[in-house]
Design goal:
- By secondary structure, the chain is α+β, with helices and mostly antiparallel strands.
- The chain contains four helices and five strands; from the N terminus they run αβααββαββ.
- It has a single domain (5-132), classed as Resolvase, N-terminal catalytic domain (Rossmann fold).
- The protein is 45% helix and 15% strand.
- The termini are far apart.
- Mean pLDDT is 79; it is low at 129-134.
Length: 134
């Protein structure tokens, strides 16, 4: 099985923030280090981002510096036209999966509220936040 270590990666960046967020310091540090003919290798595409818009923005940034992208799990390599197409298709499914998770979470929270298991807490000068009640 291919891993970043055995495909010849020279530098490793490890992000602790969610792939669903844009404000990720390691991602931005990585983008600042990319140079022409580098290849950004990730274990799985959703580790890069779960938003199609963000994936496409990142792919554009990678392309602008003349670098490539490779996802080991999905066998995506953007150094070819077929690889770029595959990247867009897989990113679409990652975004769909994230939307479904949000919908299921919202449905579960709504059900818990209707059963009185969640109490809305409103702090002064802020929006409501949810907390669980036992």
């Amino acid at each position: 099985m291919a891993t970043p270590e055995n495909v010849g990666c020279e530098r490793k960046f490890q992000e602790t923030a969610s792939g669903g967020r844009w404000d990720r310091p390691e991602l931005h540090r990585l983008l600042g280090h990319l140079r022409k003919e580098d290849v950004l290798v990730v274990w799985k595409l959703d580790r890069l981002s779960r938003s199609l818009k963000d994936v496409l923005t990142l792919m554009e940034k990678i392309d602008q510096v003349g670098a490539g992208f490779r996802s080991l799990t999905e066998a995506i390599d953007t150094t070819s036209p077929a690889g770029r197409m595959t990247t867009q298709i897989v990113a679409t499914f990652a975004e769909f999966e994230r939307a479904m998770l949000r919908e299921r979470t919202r449905t579960g929270l709504d059900a818990a509220r209707s059963q009185g298991r969640i109490v809305e807490v409103v702090a002064q000068n802020s929006s409501p936040t949810s907390s669980w009640r036992s």
